Amino acid sequence: SFYFFIALESPDFCNSYLRSEPLPHGVVTLSSFLSFFGWVFLVTTTLVWMLKREKAPPPDDEPVLGVLETYKQLVRIMRLPALKTFSLVLLTMSISFSACDSITWLKLLGAGVPREKYAMVTVSLIPVKLVLLLIFSKRLTGERPMEAFMKIYPFRLALNLVVVAFIWGTPYMITNHDIPVYFYALMVIIYGFVMISSYTMFVAKMAFFARSSDPALGGTYMTLMNTLNILGFSWPSSLMLLLVDPLTFQSCSTDTENTCSTPQLTKACAGECVTQVDGYYVLIGFCMVFGLLWLRWAIPTVRKLQRKEPEEWKVKTRRQKELEKSQFL
Q1: Positive or negative, the Cα torsion across 223, 225, 229, 231?
Q2: From CA 243, how far away is CA 118, in angstroms rounded?
Q3: Its topology with respect to the membrane (predicted)?
Q4: How far is residue 188's CA from residue 310's CA, in Å, rounded to a whole number?
Q5: How many whole angstroms separate alpha carbon 82 and alpha carbon 308?
């Protein structure tokens, strides 16, 4: 939806593809976009509440947990040794790609690529994403779905270098704001490979989530694992965005004492600020090294997690504890 908004909010995109007469604004604004989807969520949630009926659980099943009991179970789940280890995997697996995923598109915009064109490239690959999900969702379900994840991970890590080479060559391909067709073709191909590898790993993770979840508390397990997965993607990206400027070093072409490190110094430069060290490349290098070290630790760790028995991923319910106590007595 983010890339749809970028395209529909752009006057250039709307005038070129959606309108017969040009206007100085896009089809949507941020407020109208958020308002529309707010109503969509409200209506769909209300319809589900009104029309969906759940069957009463059989008397032999576990009783339906209340809010407080659900959170107590969540705490017990988080204390499981297997889940503690897997949480560490989820919270660190995206560091290797964080600089590439969070900063690359900003580098493209800074090089002169219109944001609506970037959005079009992304949106055009959505059908590919849907097809991949349909294909891999059937092929990656099994006893060891994370094997595919670990096989794709080095390929995705190597794509960091391909993306960096593309970003480095972008200023040489774009001259006087004239972007050749082959540039967009390269961008589609590279982003396509990134998306294929990313969504293959995504489906593998979802399959492992489903395999490891306790059926009696499946929703709680899936919510917890998805939360950790999203957090594992979000915090490294935020950190990379925070570090890219402090790790970028510039100097004024007419005054070497001027580091162009603040807006005031940049404005005071009579010439132009020349980048001596680009923090983007520094962070990509760090992510590559981290990714190689992470793989060395993660491969045996993930395989060990996959070999664990289903009982090691479950918390004991009250009924199970009562049965064990009665058997002991």
Answers
A1: positive
A2: 24
A3: Multi-pass membrane protein
A4: 41
A5: 8
Q: Which of the following CATH numbers is that of domain 67-255+263-328: 2.60.40, 1.10.287, 1.20.1250, 1.20.58?
A: 1.20.1250
To 10 degrees, what angle do helices 146-173 and 181-212 make?
160
pLDDT digit string (tens) for 150-186? 999 999 999 999 999 999 999 889 877 788 889 989 9
CA dist 7 and 174 (Å) reads 21
Closest CA to 167 of 182, 186, 192: 186
Q: Are 240 and 103 in contact (CB under 8 A)?
A: yes
Domain boundaries, given as residue ranges, for the chain? 1-52, 67-255+263-328
CA angle 161, 99, 231 (to 5 degrees): 130
| First-to-last C-alpha distance (Å) of the chain | 59
pTM > 0.85: no
